[in-house]
Amino acid sequence: MKFIQDKLNEMGTVNFAGYVHDAADNSDGVQKFSATISNVVTNPSACSLSYHRLVFNNGRKERIEDIAINLRDVHSITVLPDEQDWQNYLVRTGDTTKTVKDVPDISALVIKLNNGKDPTIRFYEQELADRVAKALVHAVELCGGGPKPELF
């Protein structure tokens, strides 16, 4: 868990632009994001991960929140291209005519919780995202989290 804490605290800010094309009206747009994860604390005895998240969108503060994750409540952990994470979000919200392209390429570590929430941490380097995800999966397993078997 110390590895997770150290690596996330070392990341700093991830800056990227999301270029959006809407096939419905053939329009294009861009959103410039700045995502910072800080004050990461892991607690092995409590099976918890907490951090502060600050997101700017086109220079405006979009999110400022403290995230607390009980690792026993984690359903799954996935690393995927951030563009794919955005596409999944757009489909879930019914925005099926839009496509997204990130510059530079960003990786998203998506933590799906049993309550339906999915905190996401963005990385410049996929290799680092994969290493943190592997460590998180191990921590979740040790804490008794993960997919629950179906009873019937």
Structure overview:
By secondary structure, this protein is of the alpha+beta class. 25% of the residues lie in helices and 48% in strands. The strands form two sheets. The protein has a five-stranded antiparallel sheet. A hairpin with a 2-residue loop joins strand 3 (48-57) and strand 4. Helix 1 packs antiparallel against helix 3. The chain starts with a helix and ends in a 9-residue tail after the last helix. The model has no long low-confidence stretch (mean pLDDT 94).
Write the layout of secondary structure elements.
Layout lengths: L1 H9 L2 E10 L4 E17 L4 E10 L2 E11 L3 E8 H11 L5 E6 L3 E7 L6 E4 L2 H18 L9
Antiparallel strand pairs: 1-2, 1-6, 2-3, 3-4, 5-7, 7-8
Q: What is the CATH level 1 assignment?
A: Mainly Beta
User: Order of strands in the sheet with the most strands?
Assistant: 4-3-2-1-6
Apparent shape: globular
Question: How many beta-strand runs?
Answer: 8
**Count of distinct structural domains:** 1
The first-to-last residue Cα distance is: 34 Å
Please report the number of helical segments. Answer: 3
Strand content: over 45%
Rg over C-alpha atoms, rounded to the nearest angstrom: 16 Å
What is the helical fraction, as a range of percent?
25-40%
